[in-house]
# Entry
Amino acid sequence: MLRALGIGLAVGVCALSCARGRSPFDPEGPPLASTPDACSGRSCKRVACPSGSETRVTGRVTDPVGARGLYNVAVYVPNGELKPLAHGATCDACAKRTVDAAASTLTDVHGEFVLDGVPADRAVPIVVEIGRFRRVVVRDVTACEEVRLPDDATRLPRNTTEGEIPSIAVTTGAADALECLLRAVGIDEREVVAGDDDRGRVHVYRGKGGGGVGPVTPDATALWNDPAALARHDVVVLSCEGDPAIETKDPGPLTSYLEAGGHVLATHFHSSWLSRSPKEDLRAVASFHAPSNDVGLDYTVDTSFPKGAAFADWLAFVGASTPPGTIRLDNVTASVDSLREPPGQGWVRAPGGVPRTFSFNTPLGAAREASCGRFVFSDLHAFGHGGGDFPAGCPVPGTSPSPQQLALEFLLFDLLSCVDDDRARPLPPR
# Structure
């Protein structure tokens, strides 16, 4: 009887949230100013349940390989038609992001999510999304009951037959192989192609001393010195070449790509993009010195900001950090001399506090809602060498990842996300 009564009390999401006096997207925020009476779309299928029950969907979002839960992934039910994802260098500030959600949440450090207030209906689409990764799961949802989704249904897509994948450009190098990291997190080998081949989503360019894909792989200069080539990609991943190789690099296009909304992950000698940037404020973010090697040191994970605390918890959960907040790394190059914080944010620090990994958002000094691009620099190499052709030059699939590979996996998926102030608490999309 109580359940029947609950099912009969169908109301819109606005009415439910306003009855509680808080937005469902920011329950700790200020009270809502008004209580709209009308509902629209799937919001009209939400119901008020008896005390102790909820119309709920739960699950766990993992990386494409299905091995590790992912933090800060959005899970939501669109109120109407699902909005298409924009690709390329576009402003992607979390604070401005709206998806018109009937219900939404974020995953925790284990990848677990609890999505409450789900519309009760047949064939409800549940969207799993981080940046330009997106997968849609369709389920029938019964009022005031819980649906638990199996892990394989909420795993991020490995290929475009399972969902949407960002356009990623990766350059190879003599001293690192980030193309192998993309394979290790589960992106299908068939998505990895040479250059701007539209048959795949991961586009490989040959950096100094690096390998390639197939018989003809274009030189990295065709990517990083061409504004149009950069602008086509959501993310650019730069493997250390073992040399600054500044004679091959025009820093102007990459600077423009960042400020237009591009996302960049760069290891070690790719610090030259910052130190030689045409913009004074970018050159001033960090200073670098001639590199030396750190061998077998215990590093500190900076937990002074929300994402850093989540990073430390995640590393402990996946077995890369014991005790929590400390990570032992065996192959790290020391090249950062100092970091200006803010705008920079250190993530992994050597003894003495100097960052070995840091990030910042662009344009520098922009308000939270105007932060468009993101740069992540790492003295951590994913692999101790590069140079091999893909995929033969990568570790055998299923090889246990090292602590630094796991650290870079977290930072990679954080980079793929919408851009937000690292010092702020992440909020679900509205």
Remarks:
- The longest helix spans residues 403-416.
